[in-house]
Structure of Protein arginine methyltransferase NDUFAF7:
Amino acid sequence: MDSPVLNQMFRQLFRHPACQSLRRSPPSLSRQTRTFLTRRTPAKPKSQDDAMLWTKRGDYPKNIEEEYKLYPTVTAKELQNRRERPRQVKMLTREFTDDSLYNPHYGYFSKHATIFHPGEPFDFSRIEDEPAFHRLLGQRYTEFEDLLDEVKPDVARQLWHTLTEIFRPYYGETIARYLVSNYKLTLYPYHDLIIYEMGAGNGTMMLNILDFIRDTDYEVYQRTKYKIIEISPALADLQMKNLLDTLNSKGHRDRVEIINRSIFEWDTYVHSPCFFLALEVFDNFGHDSIRYDTKTELPQQGGVLIDADGEFHEFYHTQLDPVAARFLRVRQAAARRPYPSPLGPRLLRGLRSMPPFGNDYTLPEYIPTRLMQFFDVLNQYFPAHRLLASDFSSLPDAVPGLNAPVVQTRYQRQTIPVSTPFVHQGYFDIFYPTDFNVVEDVYRAVTGKLTQVATHEEFMNRWAYIEDTETRNGENPMLTWYKNTSMLMTV
């Protein structure tokens, strides 16, 4: 990192087990700030014929040409049985992200899922306004973490919140109204209501949806099947525990199946029509980093080399792997409107390589290659699915680049962002914004289905009982929060 102080802090941080988290801490409690940065300076290629071009770190200027030739290229899947973080290997950016987040032994989501639970649902009719709601939420957040520290203190605890938990049960009921309405319009009575949810957290969305359907339309409830696809064994256990914890939720047991596996390892053909929920999961899918030669406009694919000392060295290669190359082709062929490029407007592109600019390469663009592969899974194994997805359409304080991720961790209840995705695996959340214009076109091209994109507020206005979350002065946090979130729906 950038300073001895930060290095010392992180050495202390890494003495603690990596903890899992699902979402960001509330903006009112700890804003993401660009306090600590990792400075990187580009290195010129040895010759125009070189296929590999590496980026030398300003604080660790090491030539990695020999290591690059010797070290094998590995994938996250090849490392999933490895208990120690890899050294002397090369990885594409998407594979490094997946390994850092999902490795079952040291990944960010591998050990502990500390999801903020506010206790009793908020009674918005008793809350004066949005600032009062912020204060109450902050108070409950602190109380929740204080209780955790009484059991097991942890200065490196990763504690996040979700829309489902904060606006429980109203957010889940909103999703349930959408599902039931569309089911009765298009599938009832010839098919059951089959719901798949990926990345279900602690199972609150499942319980809220099933409670709502049982209480409002018992005939549909009798035909409802709810299936969770969960990559984390710890979360799968937590979801089952919560399902069986109360008498109210025990009645759902016969309607629920929890499948502990990665969606990318799915191999079962589902012929029945179904709804597929992917709420706030796209942001943690692995992305590839692509930069462009400003003279030739040709793309180069990025990755990271991890040397014998565990240091990270970013590199770019002129030969794209098949997945990244396919995404660029699909995006180009499917685009119904212009999409942003790090090359900038076509009329100004020639200026990038001219004085005083003199940039040989653009900043990286992060492309959602793993998301495209998720669409492949839906198309191949769930051909009759209808997708409902939500995620962040933009993020503040991201690392440099187009569609770049936010990379951050938590230490002593403070959020600490960094300026590179290549960080000590398992201790940092890496989450990307979703360009819904591009993603919608790619989804249409892969699946052949029609879609609709709406903002979070538009979706809530249509499907929520908005009076449930209105404060006394008429403000509505469930509408006004998450302005940077959008929804993608199959129609």
Remarks:
- The chain has a mean pLDDT of 87.
- The first strand starts at residue 52 and ends at 55.
- The radius of gyration is 23 Å.
